[in-house]
Amino acid sequence: MPFIIAIDGPAASGKGTIARALARHFGFHHLDTGLLYRATGALGGDAVAAARGLSPADLQGEGLRSAEAGQAASRIAAIPEVRAALVEFQHRFAAQEPGAVLDGRDIGTVICPDAAVKLYVVASDEVRAERRAAELGADPAEMLAQLRERDLRDSQRATAPLRPADDAVVLDTSRLSIDEAVARAIAEVARVRGG
Ligand code: DC
C-alpha cells in the first residue's frame, strides 16, 4: 500500500513548498493538484470538455502560475463535472509506490480521505499576500484582495469546498521560516510512520 500524504490549505499558505519538501525527503511522488485546475482554466472554451481532455503536457503550459490563471482555476473548480473529470488522474497518481504527496483543497476530504497523514496548512491573510506578491512581483494590497476573493469562492462552493478534514493536523506557517515549517511537517509524517 502506498503511503499517501494529503496537504490542503488556502492559496499561498506554504502547502506547495511543504509538499515538495516532504516528497523529496521521503522519496515520494508529488502532485500539485492546483495545476490541474489552472491548466483546465487556461485551455479556455468549455471547461468540462477541457478537464476531460486534459493531458500531462497541458500541465507544462506557460503562465499557469500567474494570478489570473489562479482566478480562472478557482472559477472553473466550482463546476462539479470539472472536478469529477479530474478525480481519476489524482487517484492513479496517489496509487504509486512507495508513496505520494498531493496538495490542493480537497485532498484530505474528498480525493484521498484515507491518507495516512493529512496536513491543513494555513497562514494569516497578510503573510500570504506578502509571499505571493514577492513571488509574482505584484502589489501586496492587490494580492490580498485577490487571495481573499479566491479563498471565499473556494471555501463556499457546494462541491468539495476548501476545509480541513476532521482528522487533519493544522500547521500555521505565519511565523515559521520555510525550514521550520518543513521540519514540523517531516516530524508529523515520521511520527505516523513510526520513525
Ligand atoms: O493551489 P492553487 O493556487 O494552484 O489552486 C488554484 C485554484 O484551483 C484554487 O483557487 C482552487 C482550485 N483547486 C481546487 O479547487 N482543488 C484543488 N485540489 C486544487 C486547486
Question: Mind explaining what this structure looks like?
Answer:
The protein has 195 residues and is an alpha/beta fold. The protein has one domain (3-193): P-loop containing nucleotide triphosphate hydrolases (Rossmann fold, 3-Layer(aba) Sandwich). It has 9 helices and 5 strands, in the order βαβααααβαβααβα. The protein has helices at 15-26, 34-43, 47-52, 67-76, 80-94, 107-111, 125-136, 140-156, 178-193; strands at 3-8, 29-32, 99-104, 117-122, 169-172. Helix 1 (15-26) crosses helix 9 (178-193), helix 2 packs across helix 4 (67-76) and helix 7 crosses helix 8 (140-156). The longest helix has 17 residues, at 140-156. The protein starts with a strand and ends with a helix. 2'-deoxycytidine-5'-monophosphate binds at residues 11, 33-34, 37-38, 70, 73-74, 77, 104-106, 150, 154.
Can you give the mean pLDDT?
96
Radius of gyration: 16 Å
Unreliable sequence segments: none
Biggest β-sheet strands, sense, barrel: 5 strands, parallel
Beta-strand residue fraction: 5-15%
Mind telling me the CATH class? Answer: Alpha Beta
Name given to the CATH homologous superfamily: P-loop containing nucleotide triphosphate hydrolases
The helix count comes to 9
CATH topology title: Rossmann fold
**Total beta strands:** 5
List keywords for this structure.
single chain; 195 residues; alpha/beta; Rossmann fold; five-stranded parallel beta sheet; 9 helices; globular; binds 2'-deoxycytidine-5'-monophosphate
